């Protein structure tokens, strides 16, 4: 048995930037959880996505089951691999369809093909809660060890709920730009059980905010561009910057690969709309299935 795969760079308009994800549509080849995990480990990208065609009762809407695996575990929510999956479906499989609906561990997610060529994802908006004094001290100690430069910590909070309970957000001042800053992720392991650490700061050069995301506990030392974290960053920066309701925010993720997206927080619906580009960079065949 063999499988076709596609590698897509997400949240970028050019190849070899953004966040690469592997997309696999097994079709009638049923894969076990163990097989999906082993394949994801073999590709060793931050996420490998698996799609399963479902019946859709809506006209001009295609429905799929969607699961995401890091090299070490199954993820509850993933933005860039959903964008990559949507790009594959819109450009290769579901030609003419403008809306996709995905059944996932985080509920139904919606992808829309926009007239300008971008794809819009509608995800649940996340909530943040403050941390205890003890945890704050622990975070400050860990952050002080990840770089030789002193980062001015302005805010620490953690995600709430099924999809975001492992996320931690740390805003730092702009005196030390995150872009190009060498980071030693080792000390971040001490922040377990929070496995996704988001460093963010106010933006420059036309962006509203910038971020970098680290997940050494989940097999991702640094994630190039992270859609799911923007479900927390969107509401956070909308309120912090006193933006109007539904006002788009321009975000850049300043990892070495870099990437960009637009975020719209719809507080009334409880969702975040993430808009970005994607580029297919590789197609191939997995000759051996574990």
UniProtKB/TrEMBL annotation:
Record key words, sorted: Isomerase
Highest taxon of the lineage: Eukaryota
One GO location term (cellular component): cytoplasm
InterPro entries referenced in this protein's UniProt entry, alphabetically: Phenazine_PhzF-like (IPR003719)
GO MF terms, alphabetically ordered: isomerase activity
Residues of the active site: 47
PANTHER family, per database record: PHENAZINE BIOSYNTHESIS PROTEIN, PHENAZINE BIOSYNTHESIS-LIKE DOMAIN-CONTAINING PROTEIN
NCBIfam families, alphabetized: PhzF_family (TIGR00654)
Family listed: Belongs to the PhzF family.
Name assigned to this protein: Phenazine biosynthesis protein
Species name: Calocera viscosa (strain TUFC12733)
């Amino acid at each position: 048995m063999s499988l076709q795969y596609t590698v897509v760079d997400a949240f970028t308009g050019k190849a070899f930037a953004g966040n690469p994800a592997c997309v696999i549509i097994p079709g009638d080849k049923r894969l076990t959880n163990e097989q999906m995990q082993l394949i994801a480990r073999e590709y060793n990208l931050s996420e490998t996505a698996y799609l399963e065609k479902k019946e859709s009762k809506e006209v001009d809407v295609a429905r799929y089951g969607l699961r995401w695996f890091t090299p070490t575990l199954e993820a509850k929510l993933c933005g860039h691999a959903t964008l990559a999956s949507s790009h594959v479906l819109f450009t290769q499989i579901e030609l003419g369809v403008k809306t996709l609906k995905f059944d996932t561990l985080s509920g139904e997610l919606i992808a829309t093909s926009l007239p300008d060529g971008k794809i819009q994802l509608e995800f649940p908006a996340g909530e943040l809660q403050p941390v205890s004094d003890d945890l704050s001290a622990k975070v400050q100690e860990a952050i002080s060890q990840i770089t030789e430069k002193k980062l001015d910590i302005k805010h620490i909070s953690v995600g709430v709920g099924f999809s975001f309970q492992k996320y931690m957000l740390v805003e730092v001042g702009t005196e030390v730009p995150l872009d190009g800053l060498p980071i030693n992720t080792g000390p971040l392991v001490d922040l377990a059980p929070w496995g996704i650490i988001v460093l963010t700061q106010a933006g420059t050069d036309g962006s509203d905010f910038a971020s970098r995301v680290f997940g050494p506990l989940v097999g991702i030392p640094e994630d190039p561009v992270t859609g799911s974290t923007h479900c927390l960053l969107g509401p956070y920066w909308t309120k912090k910057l006193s933006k109007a309701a539904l006002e788009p925010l321009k975000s850049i993720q300043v990892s070495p690969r870099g990437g960009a997206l637009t975020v719209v927080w719809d507080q009334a619906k409880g969702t975040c709309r993430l808009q970005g580009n994607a580029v297919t960079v590789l197609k191939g065949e997995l000759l051996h299935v574990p």
